[in-house]
Structure formats: C-alpha cells, structure tokens
Amino acid sequence: MGERHHQQELIGKGGSGKSPFTFLDFFMKSTLLAMTLTFPPIISLIVIWEFGATTPAIMIGWVMFALFWTFYSLLKLSQRFI
C-alpha cells in the first residue's frame, strides 16, 4: 500500500504534467545509440577487408567483437541515459 502511495506522489509532483520525454531527446539519443553501435564494428570490418585478412578465424573474431561491443555499449549507455 505504501509503495502505491509513493508512486502516486511521484506522479503528482510533475507540476505542469509535461513528460520529460521529447521528440528531440528521443531523436538525439537514438542517433547516438545507432552511431555508437554501428561505426566501430563496421570500421574494423573495413580495416580487416582492406588488409586482406579475411580468414575464417579472423571473421569469427570480428563477430565476437561486434557482439561484445553491442552488449558492452548498451550496458554503458543505459547506465548513462537512465
């Protein structure tokens, strides 16, 4: 019961009732997230391709790097944005 009352107090403290969420805020955060998740793996793939080092072992390593980068950056960005 006390938790519900606390949630209602937090909702009531909004003042004008405007949400802190705005379209511009959403657009900027989603753009930053897309660039952060996309550019490092793609740039590293281009470097691997240009050096001609596209062996199966290196490509498996690149996939592992891309997955690690995705999870790591999502965890770090979620802590920063929330």
Describe the structure.
The chain has 82 residues and is mainly α. Helix content is 80%, strand content 0%. The protein has 3 helices and no strands. Helix 2 (23-51) runs antiparallel to helix 3 (56-81). The longest helix is centred in the middle third of the chain and has 29 residues, at 23-51. The protein starts with a helix and ends with a helix. The mean pLDDT is 81.
Sum up the structure in keywords.
82 residues; mainly alpha; 3 helices; 80% helix
What is the N-to-C succession of helices and strands?
HHH
What oligomeric state is this?
single chain
Give the beta-strand count: 0
Distance linking N and C termini? 26 Å
Radius of gyration based on Cα positions = 21 Å
Poorly predicted sequence stretches spanning 5 or more consecutive residues? none
Counting DSSP H or I runs of 4 or more residues, the number of helices is: 3
Task: Please summarize the sheet with the most strands.
Answer: none
Assess the beta-strand content as a share of residues. under 5%
What level of helicity do the residues show?
over 70%
**Overall form:** elongated
